[in-house]
Amino acid sequence: MKRIESSDELKSIQLDILLDFHDFCMENDINYSLAAGTLIGAVRHKGFIPWDDDIDVYLLREDYNKFIDIFPANYKGRYDFVSLERDKDWHRAYGKLYDNRTIMHEPYSDIYADLGVGIDVFPVDDVPDELSEWKKYETTRRFLRDVKNIKSMTFSSRRSFIKNAIIFLGHIIMSPFSQTWLTKKIDEYSQKHNGKGFSHVYENCLGAYNTNSAWLKKDIIDVIDVSFEGHTVKIMKGYDDYLTCIYGDYMQLPPEDKRVTHHCFSAYWK
After folding, report:
1. What is the pTM of this model?
2. Cα angle at 126 between 84 and 91, to 5 degrees?
3. CB-side neighbour CA atoms (13 Å) of 197
4. What long-range pairs does 43-49 form, CB within 8 A, spacing at least 24?
5. Torsions phi, psi of 83, nearest 5?
6. Rounded to the nearest 5°, which phi and psi values hold at 204?
């Protein structure tokens, strides 16, 4: 295998995936939006955040389910999509569209062991409008997520002894439950409020943001065109509300010592 050494080469692969994902969604009347740091990059930098190295997209649950149903196996001879619904061995409650000509290894987790460079595809679900009900829901959701995360973590010399000890203890406590079982519980809990007429939504399957509120569904239903690395892609029309809710003043650059990737992986061409 040939290692993908440069950040530019990695981003080029991810961008190609995003553009083909965009084309497929447009051809099949599926709405999506760039999300999280990728959305900040689109708004603030017209492309990747310079020190970022991944791409995240959101689909409302109905569009996510449609994508799962119709996206073909081995699309264009180079793309595969993995999700809880399509692969019994997958144990995350969101999907990943990846270039099957590549391999990516993440030392902190075994999830990427046989997958390639890709983009993460997240479903977005309805959540309670009442703040007190939202906080109750969010407390349970975070507990389920954290338990599952500990179950999926592998030991690493890069972690402290205490963190590795916590992971070891978590593995013992959670030994009766498989990662797939825990993931299905998170997936079920993520969708429990769909179809009840709520006006707020959240990305429930990972939802690692430190926020006290969800965002309005109307912010993501309508999408608009923006330029991303010189190409046209989609973002939610209410991006300002969403980004402000999650990040606060998202147009303010972080301190220079914070301008680093939060991921740790190596990638290769097969």
Report:
1. 0.89
2. 15
3. 0
4. 43/226, 43/235, 43/239, 43/243, 43/250, 43/251, 44/250, 44/251, 46/226, 46/227, 46/228, 46/229, 47/227, 47/228, 47/229, 47/230, 48/11, 48/229
5. -155, 170
6. -85, -25
Q: Are 188 and 216 in contact (CB under 8 A)?
A: no
Alpha helix locations (H) across the chain? 7-27, 36-40, 61-70, 131-152, 161-173, 179-190, 218-221, 239-247
Instruction: Return the CA Rg of the chain.
Output: 18
Torsion from C-alpha of 243, 244, 248, 253, nearest 10 degrees: 50
Residues in CB range of 179: below 8 A, 6 or more apart = 91, 148, 151, 152
Mean pLDDT for the chain overall: 88
Q: What are the helix and strand counts (H, E) for the chain?
A: 8, 12
Q: What is the pLDDT of residues 2-29, one digit of tens each?
A: 999 888 999 999 999 999 999 999 999 9
| DSSP state letters, 63-78 | HHHHHHHHPPTTBTTT
Angle 131-152/179-190 helices, nearest 10 degrees? 160
pLDDT tens column, 60-105: 999 999 999 999 988 999 999 999 998 888 888 999 999 999 998 7
C-beta of residue 113 within 8 angstroms of C-beta of residue 181: no
- Phi then psi for residue 234, to 5 deg, are -110, 140
SS3 state at 181: helix
88: DSSP letter: T
- SS in 3 state form for 39-53? HHHHHHHCCCCCCCC
